[in-house]
UniProtKB/TrEMBL annotation:
It comes from Lupinus albus. It catalyses: L-glutamate + ATP = L-glutamyl 5-phosphate + ADP; L-glutamate 5-semialdehyde + phosphate + NADP(+) = L-glutamyl 5-phosphate + NADPH + H(+). Residues 16-261 form the Aspartate/glutamate/uridylate kinase domain. It comes from the Eukaryota. Pfam families: AA_kinase, Aldedh. This is Delta-1-pyrroline-5-carboxylate synthase. One of its GO terms (molecular function) is glutamate 5-kinase activity. GO terms for cellular component: cytoplasm. Keywords: Amino-acid biosynthesis, ATP-binding, Kinase, Multifunctional enzyme, NADP, Nucleotide-binding, Oxidoreductase, Proline biosynthesis, Transferase.
Amino acid sequence: MSIMDPTRDFVKSVRRVVVKVGTAVVTRSDGRLALGRLGALCEQLKELNTKGYEVILVTSGAVGLGRQRLRYRRLANSSFSDLQRPQGDDHDGKACAAVGQSSLMALYDTMFSQLDVTSSQLLVNDGFFRDTAFRKQLSDTVNSLLDLRVIPIFNENDAVSTRKAPYEDSSGIFWDNDSLAGLLALELKADLLVLLSDVEGLYSGPPSDPKSKLIHTYIKEKHQSEITFGDKSRLGRGGMTAKVNAAVCAAYAGTPVIITSGYVTNNIMRVLQGERIGTVFHKDAHLWINTKEVSAREMAVAARDSSRRLQVLSSEERSKILMAVADALENNESMIRSENEADIAAAEGAGYEKSLISRLALKPEKISSLAKSVRLLADMEEPIGQILKRTELADNLTLEKISCPLGVILIIFESRPDALVQIAALAIRSGNGLLLKGGKEAKLSNEVLHKVITSAIPDTVGDKLIGLVTSREAIPDLLKLDDVIDLVVPRGSNKLVSQIKDTTKIPVLGHSDGICHVYVDKEANIDMAKQIIKDAKTDYPAACNAMETLLVHKDLSTNGGLDQLVVELKNEGVELYGGPRASTLLNIAETCSFHHEYSSLACTIEIVDDVFAAIDHIHQHGSSHTECIVTEDSEVAEAFLRQVDSASVFHNASTRFCDGARFGLGAEVGISTSRIHARGPVGVEGLLTNRWILRGNGQVVDGDKGVTYTHKELPLKV
């Protein structure tokens, strides 16, 4: 996705920021104060203050709060007969402002005092700004307050304002608190103005309209005539129109502006960290238009359109594309390694763990292996259009079940750039469109691999078949596209997978943890067991199919078998942690949790009574990934293989065999521990679904009166 980081680079130099909080944020729909949101706002401003930012707050809400207080007062003093009559809201707005202003400031003072922050109040009218002396004094006062780490709180003094609605007229300097915030940002030489609203930012239409899209960067020349505004604020006199007008004026006069939601508790901090949230207004925004911003929907639709062109190609033509991809990988090895080495150097400099850096590396043998796996996929039997079942429903009425691509798949993966190659090759072979979001630690590697692979895709299909998402802030938009994206496959931490499952309607396939077990039975060949656990733990410790827990039958703790296993692991530099029984017996540190994925040269050992205790342990603490039993007792082995409820279960073989390439799948998009659609290593078949084709000769149902059903199974090949 062409989302340019430079559109938020300017926040790095921000020191003085004006924050304007709207009425819809300050108050609830019934007019009462939204204390939770106000408390979160004050905590953010305190954090900014502590970090050295100069914070100026412009607040709305006084009129609404005053009206609410006066309404309660009138109700409290009304007789029963008074309450039987209709209660109109005829309070004077200026009186409401006078009453509400003191209450609002008292609340801010209380909240800031609890946070050990001092605040101050400044009430202004637009006429003041016509006075040069006032403007200088205002600037001097605010500078003095900021030097003292005091937060100035501004509001328009509606109680004594001589202007009446409509507020925006040719005589006004500002017309509401949005335009006041813009004026103050310029007058006080702020580096940034943040306008907090009740929506995520500026949309192309009313936010309630499903077709409306969030505009991340406002370009006046493009958006001014395209936007349809919704209703104004439910309580204030502004709304999005007022915010956009204020933002445009301030931005084009030199102060960048971001409109974002005040309902999210940490949005101000996220804005200042450069996250791509809300809508940015900047005087140089028109210069960014050349780095065209492609929306999530546009990218997904382009991938879908390209996939449909890919599907109409012959099997031979799709195979040729994969062969070209394999050649391109080998021909561009030096460029790929150069970018990958830059990623590794950056990761080492940032202090990333060795296990992550190991997953990040693209060594020559890895690139060669990737090219080989792509060619293996090219030589596989054609997966699309395979007849899975043929049934004669009635005379001359034949039903066929055939394989077909899922559509568009979104893959979110961390650390491993080699996953990009495998997934892209599987997508091409299976006729699917693909959107890829890799981890930031592999940014350069992913970009060069994407460039190399898409360069091998012919124009008849289009390089948009495979889209590369470069911003993590784009993920929420993508996860909303359940009408375009057909499957999400997250490859990463448990936290990542859980977050995705919680925030999308799109089906999610994948696993969160790789808590793989090896159980060494009392009837095991100890020499074989040593080789298996050594390979399962040390062949590639960072892999999700590496052994994380070794379960040992209790009899091996008395006949020397356990000692041999421990020595084998220690000789390989494996750090050992024990369960309650093993830690006591072996005098090693006790593990903090059995459900722990080390992804390094470390593992947990525990002693169990028998195979059934091992099975119970796996079901209680495992992640349903891959489990292994080492035993010469075939009856015990069969019990383990039948009863362990994991995606892959092995007998006398290393857990490291759980891999798409080793299974002969060519490659894998990931390993699924789900129980629906696909399970275990997911290759081409896991990216396919089916369609039903009915071939008739003019038959109609007509209440089933004219059809004699035969439902006869037919040979797959005609």
